[in-house]
Design goal:
heterodimer, A: alpha+beta, Mth169, Chain: A, 3-stranded antiparallel sheet, 2 helices, elongated, B: alpha/beta, 9-stranded mixed sheet, two-stranded antiparallel sheet, about 25% strand
Chain lengths: ~80, ~220
């Protein structure tokens, strides 16, 4: 199975890269852009064939390494 | 004081650190590769120098925090052993959970390579006793991710329990919460800081402002 882990800075944590991207978009003329936040997407190929267990496994990986719980939140999506 | 210096791939500030330790301790630290599972017998102080361990992949220090040697460092800290992490070493210690908080990208996004001034928040620890209380000293800094952050409760606890080691005394260029440049563990035996005291320990290099850190440790 494939797991997609999306890691984002928690709400309230300053995201200077998102801010810089927002500024650049405004400079390009995209006047309607509000807040921009930047994160990471990590694709995992898993040997596990059960979707629920694959999700558990990916969540454990996110807690232990892929995300830093002090500053980041994550969500896991399982693809068959 | 017997020191062991950890080497991870991508670390590049170990020579300055070795020189600072040699000068104050009278001998160089043992060098320990990250794949080792034990520290040399008799190690009192573990040092994590600066650099870009594992290319800063994922997050600064995230990979190094899970290296084999870090299990031994955890045990060492658990026994009350001393640990010093500078710059990337500080980032590794927060990622390993040995110090609270995290280091975010600098608020202005720029890599900051310049001199800063630090205030010594307490001069009664094994790391800082050779400074006068309230001393301010010069320290070079060189980092892209030095913006210290932690939950508000954690910051309050750090301040309440006197665990803030150093604060930026001039400009807070990287945006650190409460100007924090370095923190102690609750038992005051683990210290992490972003600037580099080890780079200012010789008059030939412009001063000895950072030497009290190493002289303090040498006397322990």
């Amino acid at each position: 199975m494939k797991a997609i882990v999306t890691v984002m800075l928690k709400t309230g944590v300053l995201d200077p890269q998102g801010k810089a991207i927002g500024h650049a978009l405004h400079n390009l003329g995209f006047a309607g852009v509000g807040e921009v936040r930047m994160g990471k997407v990590i694709e995992l190929e898993l040997a596990e064939t059960d979707a629920a267990r694959a999700r558990q496994e990916a969540e454990e990986m996110a807690r232990k390494l892929l995300a830093n719980p002090v500053i980041e939140s994550f969500k896991v999506e399982i693809l068959a | 004081m017997q020191a062991a210096l950890l080497l991870f791939p991508g670390i590049n500030r170990e020579r300055d650190m070795i020189q600072a330790v040699r000068q104050s301790f009278g001998r160089a630290p043992a060098i320990v590769w990250h794949k080792e599972t034990e520290l040399p017998a008799g190690t009192d102080l573990v040092i994590l120098p600066g650099g870009f361990s594992f290319g800063d992949y994922l997050r600064c220090g995230a990979m190094a925090a899970h290296s084999p040697v870090m299990r031994a460092v955890r045990e060492h800290a658990g026994r009350g052993g001393y640990v010093l992490g500078v710059c990337n070493g500080f980032q590794i210690l927060t990622e390993a959970g040995l110090l609270p908080g995290a280091l975010l990208r600098n608020a202005g996004l720029r890599f900051l390579s310049m001199e800063t001034r630090l205030s010594v928040e307490r001069a009664d620890t094994v790391f800082t006793r050779n400074w006068a209380p309230g001393a301010v000293f010069r320290a070079p800094m060189a980092h892209g991710d030095g913006n210290y952050t932690a939950r508000t409760e954690t910051l309050d606890r750090l301040e309440g329990e006197g665990l803030v080691a150093f604060r930026y005394a001039d400009e807070n260029r990287n945006g650190s919460a409460r100007r924090i440049a370095g923190v102690f563990s609750p038992n005051l035996r683990v210290l992490g800081l972003m600037p580099h005291p080890e780079d200012l320990v010789d008059p030939l290099l412009g001063g000895t402002d950072g030497k009290p850190l190493f002289d303090s440790l040498a006397a322990a």
